[in-house]
Amino acid sequence: MKMGLNAKDGNPDTIQAIGHAAMAAKSIPSEKFQANIKVFLGDMKNIPQKMYITTIDCYTAERLVISPDSGVGVIDACAASASAPGVTLAQPLG
To answer: 83: which of 5, 17, 88, 94 fits an S-S bond (Cβ 3.0–4.6 Å)?
Structure first.
């Protein structure tokens, strides 16, 4: 978690290093984290039409925008967007 907090720039190398550390860190299981997300979202299954969710690809450091027509479920998208290195595991998208 300190790596993310101490980052001084948004360079792809920095983001990628944080992503790799996040994938290697001991964190709560994805299923538990997603269960917590479901508490906030309730029965919502799909991303609302005018909502776009952002996240980062841990392998490439690419910034991602998940749109309603992406085929990614709202729980997966929100979990990926809300995951934090050292707190939650990096969340897979599809």
So the answer is: 88
